[in-house]
Amino acid sequence: MNNNKSTLIILWCVLIAAVFFGYKNHFNNPFEFDDDHTIVSNFYIRDIKNIPLFFTDATTTSSLPANQAYRPGLTILNTIDYWLAGKPEPEPFVYHVHIFISFIVLGVFIYFFSLKIYNTAVKSELNVYIAFLTSAVFLLHTANAETINYIISRSDGSSTLFILISLCVFIYFKELRKYQLYLIPMACAFFVKETGVLIGPLAFLYLFLFEQNNSLENVTKPKTWTKILISVLPAFFLGAFLFWFAKHMTPKTWTGGGGTPYQYLITEFFVMVHYVKNYFLPFDLSADTDWGLASHWYDDKTLIGIAFIISTLVIAYRASLQMKSRPIAFGILWFYLCLLPTSSIFPFAEVLNDHRVFLPYIGLTISCVWALYLLYLKYEASLERIPFSKVGIGLVILLFFSAHVYGLRTRCEVWSSGETLWYDVTQKSPKNGRGLMNYGNVLMSKGDYKGAEEYFVRAKTEWPYYSYIFINLGVLYNAQGKVAEAETNFKYGMSLNAYNPNAYYYYSNMLKTNGRISEAKAMVEQGLKLSPRHPALNTLNTELATNPLYAAEIKNKTELLETLCKQTPTPENYLNLSLEYYNQGRYLDCVHAAEEALKIRPDYDLAYNNICSAYNNLHDWDNAIKAGKKAVELNPTNQLAKNNLQAAIDAKNNGDK
Q1: What is the pLDDT of residues 305-330, one digit of tens each?
Q2: What is the second-level CATH architecture of the domain 585-653?
Q3: Can you give the pTM of this predicted structure?
Q4: Which CATH number applies to 420-557?
């Protein structure tokens, strides 16, 4: 026994090291996607004294009214990590560290939970190692990188941890069940994410299959499960109450999006096939997929999905007939049960998300690991006669985990920046308008306006009614000095979604930069009515109210930018002035403004790019090449600078004058 403990301690140390190695480069990965409105622009998480407010006001969960669901536990976690970082702006590193530690702790609880199941099914000293392998498979599985890297998806990770804590308390401490202590972590799980309500059904499933030694053929016999149901009724009642309470507390502005419950349901049948496929072959992971709704129940994919689900449920039924194979049945049923909140009749805007299977994959892992173990036991005697068979099995296991560690590092690299993440989405989900738009945003931030517009237009073609695309087109056209086109897109985008405070911010910012101060102030006021604590809107509101520059209308944008640079000499302001000069054909002024930006920020690649582009228009190839090389040296990923540099080199080589 002591040898087992020593071996397990060593194995756990190796496993934790492997998990850390797999995720080593993810700790500084930036906030992405929904992280923005729940963390970055969520004013409420910036004061730890707001924690009591989170339980009474669901608008504190997000700066976007449409996303304000009742999840006080999740907002508390975000607030604690902001407080721990101790910086004016949220720090991703602290969030990632907290999430990673919770992930490791979850692996420990998966070990104890699966060990209890395995020991009930078959008494064996090897069970401790099979339980360890179960934790190892889950912790090192490539697909889980989608949950661990996506910070706000800590809702899946943290709620899953509390669910496992609750179940471990339930199955290990029978004598305490009468005190209902397992309901405490259940409530904690629910306050982080609604999947906490699953504890009642999961506890029932455990009691039915293992403690009461029933197979699925007894489901039709009420006497076999009525008593079990009564014993876990407190969990069902608490789940029902919490679900009702959360719905009552959720603002009416919240929307899940999606189509009809019927369409969503018939789509989810094949979505489940996708999830299982990604479990075994996680090559198709995407941060934002482009799947659409099925039209009819007799669609090919729907029928395939139904057939697949029936087949796996038949496997679960047959596995439940004997105690030794019952963990396989339990894991399959766990998988489908835990998918019900997101893959049934409750429609969401996205029909699938690869981070949604974090909790369901625990069930698949239990099924698969135990099935392989039973297969090993069946052929153990035969394997003993084959030389080096155990060495071969060890090498296969090592190869399996090595492949997943490589997969983890690859996915962490994809999540390492907005550019790599959204480019990956455009490749794997080319019909996803949001993914195309977000990659366009990356190109716009780099000054590649032509490339950005191409992606925005593609996005608009795929998702013609997605307001954010038109808002971003407005930002793009304003940056190019195309004020009329910008305003048209802002107004159309706001007509598609009048409840998006970000739209009011960007439109009012455009009005401000064009000297239309009174209109900007009115637009800010409208935005603040939707989201009173929106940081960007409040900052802009203060700026418009206190800065003398905005005391009156200024019709000349150049004058506005010049005055702004004098009053607030930031590199960004000088870069905007440089771009304005460039758009007017004042190329030497463009160079001088960019040089002012470089005095403040010497490593500003965008400023060097402006200088290169201006000198290209002046046919001063030597200075253009010098500036272009510097821009590329500072930022090798700046494609626009590379293009401008190459244009200068080609022109010089061709002897252009």
Answers
A1: 999 999 999 999 999 999 999 999 99
A2: Alpha Horseshoe (1.25)
A3: 0.86
A4: 1.25.40.10
